[in-house]
Amino acid sequence: MAQRSAAIRITKPPDSPGSKGKQASTPPKEKELRNDKSQRLCRNITLYDQCRTPNCPFYHPPKSDQLEASSTTTVVESSPTKVNELKASHLQAPVFVPKASAPVFNVSPTLSTPALQAPRSPGPQLSHVAPEWNQESYAGASQMQHEYEDPAYDYDTLAAGAMYMPQQPLRPPIDYHLYTAPMPYVSNPPLGQNPLHSFFIPDDLRRMFLARLEALKWKPNVPPHPPPPAELGVYHDLVPLESVRPTSSRVYGHPAPVYRAMSTVDGNVYLLRRIEGFRVTSEAAFAALDTWRRLRHPNIVTLREAFTTKAFGDNSLVLVYDFHPNATTLWDEHLNQNAESAPKLPHTARRQGMPINERLLWSYVTQIANALKAIHSSGLAARALDPNKLLLTGKNRVRLNGGGILDVLSFDPSTPPAAYQAEDMISFGKLILSMGCEFYQPGHHPAQAIDHLERVYSPDVKNLVIFLLGKPGPYKTFDEVLHMIGPRILNELDALQFYNDSLEDEAMREMENGRIVRVLSKMGFVNERAEFEYDPRWADTGDRYIIKLFRDYVFHSVSPTGAPVLDLSHVITCLNKLDAGLDERLMLVSRDERSCLVVTYREIKSCIEAAYTDLRNAGDKLPTGAMGAMGISQRAMGSS
Ligand SMILES: Nc1ncnc2c1ncn2[C@@H]1O[C@H](COP(=O)(O)OP(=O)(O)OP(=O)(O)O)[C@@H](O)[C@H]1O
């Protein structure tokens, strides 16, 4: 039943705006504001008609007559003779029976602009004319209307310096129809410009997220041999993460392959580390794992559980960790010069052998020190501070991997944790040497590598390494390490907070996009519906006819030469105004170009709500809902 939408053409438009000459007319006051070039300098109004930010030099407080002009009350007082002129048969247009009466005009050569600003009635009738709209989504927008009508916002009175005691504290109205501008403290695009890509998530973030999603679903082309068990306790869909079966782990001394698996308990994806051919001799070896399980830290890969199994055909110890999709290791990212020997995970983009600059080095040092402090404070020791066991996820985020494995594999109740913690300090010093000096091997004497550090990095790096590699003593504590790197921790804190600001900014933008998706979805449910309740014309008649014309107005406009107008700003502006239910009027033209309707966004919104509610009520009768199957509740769609 999909019909090709005809372009809207008004043969003699009563008040056609210049650029969108064939779309619709707007009240003259707003048109004047648009044409005022000086206002285009204001960033807030590139997408919107006028700036309502109080401190902005281009701030235009709504005038009382302007507010009146935007009222939909035209409907109530429009001349009955004019309404009577609308005859469906006469116009050869689809039958239109609006629930909320809207003024309807014949497009005739005599139609003049003032006719569009037909008489309007006072505010209170407004709620009568426009039925209730979705208050759940943007209750504040209706409040905005009240605030405009509140005498406290009579700007003319205020401007005249009249003595006025407001009943309630004066606060500027919030324009819910405005698309969120970038936060001023995050980005600073040139004034008057709002590039298209600024509406969407930045490419680098999008690529990172997509790579993670891909890594969650990735499967090897060639089935693994031998195949992993179909099920392992509550875990299923085991996928080995390394295409080459590891012989023996450099760190653990046993073959220790890793698998991605899904849990039937919570549907989450986990990482299973299997220690092949290992038999647990003492239950006490598991004691430390309980503490590891309780340790939650942003720089440590969380251990979930551990168990032994014979499902692989041998005695295996399996440790279950959080899965970080598309993670790589510090070794593969920076130190592995041999691309051939690196594990081949098709979904990871490795940078092999990239030198670590000082800023990044301190970022890693700070994060690792943070993890070590948490581990030592819990009475544990890392024991596996190796570049292979430091996962890199996201933007330079380090996580200590494989916590607790050596506590089981090399269980020795006679050695106190303090001894392992002292070893951690030395391993940390060697790790920094490895990161800063690619030729250093942990078994070698560090003198040459320290010389290299001194040449390449600031003296603080060398001092820290010397301290960590020094002999144990009463002053060699982890708190002293933190004291030494204190200023670098502050740098890291700064960077994190800036990053947080930019992510919040992105989240705000996505919130706006989410709003638009909801509105679009509701329109999509109604538009071009083949039939509803055995009525094949349902989508084209009654209130739905307005929705159809609005869809044409938003998406199917054409330029004076007949070319499609693909103006994203127009689309976003219209949909935001619709979502906010503004009283601004717009003119919708029928496809046969012989009639037009002047309606407000608020009325269109109520038409959409009414049609969507009809569909929803009918849908409720069905035993199962497709939306439920997709995990989308009707409440999420903004249904009240
Ligand atoms: N928790 C995790 N989440 C996501 N991916 C992980 C996780 N742990 C490891 N990986 C991935 O598995 C790969 C192999 O990890 P592993 O710790 O076995 O490194 P390795 O280089 O094989 O070390 P070893 O010499 O000890 O076997 C890593 O490169 C990483 O991409």
From TrEMBL:
InterPro entries according to UniProt: Kinase-like_dom_sf, PAN3, Pan3_CK, Prot_kinase_dom, Znf_CCCH
Subcellular localization(s) per the UniProt record: Cytoplasm
SUPFAM superfamilies: Protein kinase-like (PK-like)
Keyword check for Nucleotide-binding: yes
Entry annotated with the keyword Membrane: no
Signal peptide start and end residues: none
Record field: compositional bias (Basic and acidic residues): 28-39
Purpose: Regulatory subunit of the poly(A)-nuclease (PAN) deadenylation complex, one of two cytoplasmic mRNA deadenylases involved in mRNA turnover. PAN specifically shortens poly(A) tails of RNA and the activity is stimulated by poly(A)-binding protein PAB1. PAN deadenylation is followed by rapid degradation of the shortened mRNA tails by the CCR4-NOT complex. Deadenylated mRNAs are then degraded by two alternative mechanisms, namely exosome-mediated 3'-5' exonucleolytic degradation, or deadenlyation-dependent mRNA decaping and subsequent 5'-3' exonucleolytic degradation by XRN1.
Top-level taxonomic group: Eukaryota
Native source organism of the sequence: Kockovaella imperatae
Swiss-Prot/TrEMBL keywords: ATP-binding, Coiled coil, Cytoplasm, Kinase, Metal-binding, mRNA processing, Nucleotide-binding, Transferase, Zinc, Zinc-finger
Domain notes: The N-terminal zinc finger binds to poly(A) RNA. The pseudokinase domain, the coiled-coil (CC), and C-terminal knob domain (CK) form a structural unit (PKC) that forms an extensive high-affinity interaction surface for PAN2.
Gene3D superfamilies on file: 1.10.287.3700, 1.20.5.5160, Transferase(Phosphotransferase) domain 1 (1.10.510.10)
The name this protein goes by in its record: PAN2-PAN3 deadenylation complex subunit PAN3
Annotated segments matching region Knob domain: 526-640
Binding locations of ATP: 273, 322-329, 388-389
Coiled coil residues, start to end: 487-525
Family according to the record: Belongs to the protein kinase superfamily. PAN3 family.
Recorded GO MF terms: ATP binding; poly(A) binding; protein kinase activity; zinc ion binding
The encoding gene: PAN3
C3H1-type domain mapped to chain residues: 36-63
Region (Disordered): 1-39
Coarse class of the protein's main subcellular location: cytoplasm
